[in-house]
Design goal:
Shape: elongated
Number of helices: 4
Number of domains: 1
Length: 89
């Protein structure tokens, strides 16, 4: 998908707001880097669409607050899968 920066930042913001998506999920969906998503929704969206930015900022703050839980869950699943396959550390 090719967008100009205004269209891309708006599309990313709408996707994150509608799906309560993470930066990683949005990056994968739009085929851009996590850095691009973050820059678009924090800097460009703030300037171009403050109302949408406010909604996205809340979701990003929640994701940031929960990231340690997601990481812990991913690690737990990793070692559970290793145990199930009989692989030793």
């Amino acid at each position: 998908m090719r967008f100009d920066t205004y269209e891309r930042s708006t599309a990313l913001g709408q996707y994150i707001a509608e799906n309560r998506a993470t930066v990683r999920e949005a990056a994968a969906r739009f085929g851009v880097s996590k850095s691009t998503v973050h820059k678009d929704v924090t800097e460009k969206l703030r300037r171009d669409n403050p109302a949408l930015y406010a909604a996205v900022a809340g979701i990003l703050a929640q994701n940031k607050a929960e990231r340690h839980l997601r990481g812990g869950e991913a690690t737990r699943r990793k070692y559970q899968n290793l145990r199930e396959r009989g692989v030793k550390k």
